Amino acid sequence: MLRTFDGGSSAGGSRSRKRFACMAAGQSSATELFRSCPVVTAVGQTLGRVRSVLVDVRSRQLRYVVVAPNQGKAPIVIPWQALYFDSTRVRLVYYTYS
């Protein structure tokens, strides 16, 4: 089932329009590539595996990736723009800017 939810404050007033749709990895052909794909930091530390992706309902663009950590901690939500797909190792690399 596709879940939708609000994306922060609503500048348009009290209209109840959903902003993001949560899709489980593998729920569509576009997200099939990310099913259980490992996510690592730029130095190679494993963060976990892709659990789902958040798609902007209005623009239909991928906005966030939800990562299920290996240690059973709370899910990590990473902006898509901060990730790079390493096709040689089939993994997503999270670049932090510090």
Overview of this protein structure:
The protein has 98 residues and is an all-beta fold. It has one domain: PRC-barrel domain (SH3 type barrels). The chain is 0% helix and 44% strand. It has no helices and 8 strands. Strands 1, 2, 3, 4, 5, 6, 7 and 8 form an 8-stranded mixed beta sheet that branches. Strand 5 (62-69) and strand 6 (76-79) form a beta hairpin.
Secondary structure: elements and pairs:
Layout: E1 3-5, E2 20-24, E3 38-41, E4 46-56, E5 62-69, E6 76-79, E7 83-86, E8 91-94
Parallel strand pairs: 3-8
Antiparallel strand pairs: 1-2, 2-4, 3-4, 4-5, 5-6, 7-8
Compact overview of the structure:
The chain is mainly beta and 98 residues long. It is 0% helix and 44% strand.
Main features:
98 residues; mainly beta; SH3 type barrels; 8-stranded mixed sheet; globular
